[in-house]
């Protein structure tokens, strides 16, 4: 029997990062969503006439109601609109209710687990939109996602050009050189995770990642299991038979610049034959502002393909071909937008768990995935990653994440103390990163 995991992070500690997220950040995101709907008013009118205008009003009033519930710490209420995941959500809410010991026994924004209430906020945003037909397919975050793609054009062109020059003579590279390039593109994908939009309520002025600056950022990698990723993939490449598969799965996080860095890594995995197929997992609804949906996934590839820049458009053409050939596969699943810890996946979404089991290596991108891997619990900094996963071991896996929330496991004794002394905000600024592996040695 595994020991009970520690308590969940929550907004109960006034002044904590979690508290500020619930108090300020989510209301700001709601305000921005309302503003976005407002700005599209005439577009809705052109498309749907009066009905579109009414729908806009309805969605806005539902979002204002949500913001008010949050700001006055009202009890969390069940979802009302019937979707594939509604019953699971409401069961989870009941479960949370059973854990509350206070007088009225209701889960609330400022006391319930952070992971639960934050996911719930985004799920309610989605509910507000789908309750407002005919604008029920509107993604309130689409604009900001697309904007970051355009704003990071220069960096995107930089890494695409780098990749294209690399793959030109990839066959001639010796082992060491190939490993070196693998490490570089892993790091590009890591620092690409600095760019989520929920951190800054969409006002992002993110770090430009380019290949030359990687050495400078190396000291900020707190857990570095890149060697283990290399041994796993290169050993498999050497020992696998001619027609056997090497499958790497990437559980995606943000669209825009980060998604391009993931595509670059995935392209390199195929070009170097470290993998023969790559499977991607995205969200089925708009999520945490910048997370990738199938629309974002396809949109980025289309944009790349139609770029005027020779290498960016070459990337777009190649990526589309990978999809056509089934060497890149996209999966959507509603589990990714549930509030559950990943250790509940085998129970709640056995089909998804079984799919992940087919991978030889799984990358989990970003902070939210890390929170779900570790259950968003107050683990001690030195507890082994394997233990914090609490039984979630579908295949060898690696978190690729910049630190944006007050949770980190698997550090060396003394490491967290040293960081706190030199940089008190080390856990939440996205300045530090990890490659944290779990799997057989
Ligand atoms: O998963 P991502 O995109 O890396 O980060 C998501 C995030 O911005 O959202 C949460 C706070 O709202 C934090 O866990 C984290 O900072
Ligand atoms: Mn995200």
UniProtKB/TrEMBL annotation:
Task of the protein: Metal-dependent phosphatase that shows phosphatase activity against several substrates, including fructose-1-phosphate and fructose-6-phosphate. Its preference for fructose-1-phosphate, a strong glycating agent that causes DNA damage rather than a canonical yeast metabolite, suggests a damage-control function in hexose phosphate metabolism. Has also been shown to have O-methyltransferase activity that methylates glutamate residues of target proteins to form gamma-glutamyl methyl ester residues. Possibly methylates PCNA, suggesting it is involved in the DNA damage response.
Cofactor list: Mn(2+); Ni(2+)
Alphabetized UniProt keyword annotations: Hydrolase, Manganese, Metal-binding, Methyltransferase, Nickel, S-adenosyl-L-methionine, Transferase
GO molecular function, one term: metal ion binding
Organism name: Rousettus aegyptiacus
Family designation: Belongs to the damage-control phosphatase family. Sugar phosphate phosphatase III subfamily.
One CC-aspect GO term: nucleus
Protein name listed in UniProt: Sugar phosphate phosphatase
Domain named Damage-control phosphatase ARMT1-like metal-binding: residues: 21-418
The UniProt record lists the keyword Lipid biosynthesis: no
EC number: 2.1.1.-, 3.1.3.-
GO biological process, one term: methylation
Domain notes per entry: Subfamily III proteins have a conserved RTxK motif about 40-50 residues from the C-terminus; the threonine may be replaced by serine or cysteine.
PANTHER family noted in UniProt: DAMAGE-CONTROL PHOSPHATASE ARMT1
InterPro entries: ARMT-1-like_metal-bd_sf (IPR036075), ARMT1 (IPR039763), ARMT1-like_metal-bd (IPR002791)
Recorded catalytic activity of this chain's protein: beta-D-fructose 1-phosphate + H2O = D-fructose + phosphate; L-glutamyl-[protein] + S-adenosyl-L-methionine = [protein]-L-glutamate 5-O-methyl ester + S-adenosyl-L-homocysteine; beta-D-fructose 6-phosphate = dihydroxyacetone + D-glyceraldehyde 3-phosphate
Highest taxon of source: Eukaryota
